[in-house]
Amino acid sequence: MEMTDEDILLQLNTKDETAAFIEIYNRYYVQLYNAACKRCSSTEVAEEIVQDLYINLWRNRATIKINSSLSGYLFTAVRNLILNQIQKETVRRRVYESFVHDSIDYDNSTEEIVMANDLSHQLNINLGFLPEKCRSVFELSRKHHKSNKQIAQQLGISEKTVENHITRALKYLRIGLHYILLSLAAFVFFK
To answer: For the chain, which terminal residue's Cβ has fewer other Cβ atoms within 10 angstroms, N or C?
Structure first.
């Protein structure tokens, strides 16, 4: 004997909730899914909406009060979930478009050039504090793009000494430029 929607609702609120839920699922899933597919951007979104409806129905089964027909309640719930989904997609699209628009419109090339020049100037100042041999090894390596072997031959020192000078220079410059980089990062971040 086929149960009426009222009988299913009574069972959903009482002891035989699993059987009632399965009956609701079997009776309405395909219709709800088809209705959602007509209004959604994809079948995956439609399926997700109908699954959300059933999850909410199961979670609220003990307290749910349906004053209209079960089918009316379910189709209204699907429609509301679809409207919520459309609203979320609209907000996401607006935020994305705003982000893309802002990032395209914002030209900070002048600021970047100024900051790069300041950084280069500070680097040169800090290089001036290095010992003469260490500074010349570092400049041959980084500015003139010579290999450690070429620098060793040119200056008449071992490759290991070249490595030590470069390591020492990098360590010194890293410490010296640490505060400058922090201030530049703070400037860019808080701008």
So the answer is: N
* Whether residue 75 has pLDDT greater than 80: yes
Per-residue pLDDT band at 179 (split at 50, 70, 90): low
pTM of the model: 0.50
Fold of 109-190: Arc Repressor Mutant, subunit A (1.10.10)
Map out the domains of the chain as residue ranges.
Answer: 5-105, 109-190
For domain 5-105, the question of CATH label 2.60.40.2470 is answered with no
Q: Determine what percent of the chain is predicted with pLDDT higher than 90.
A: 28
pLDDT band at 41 (very low <50, low <70, confident <90, very high): confident
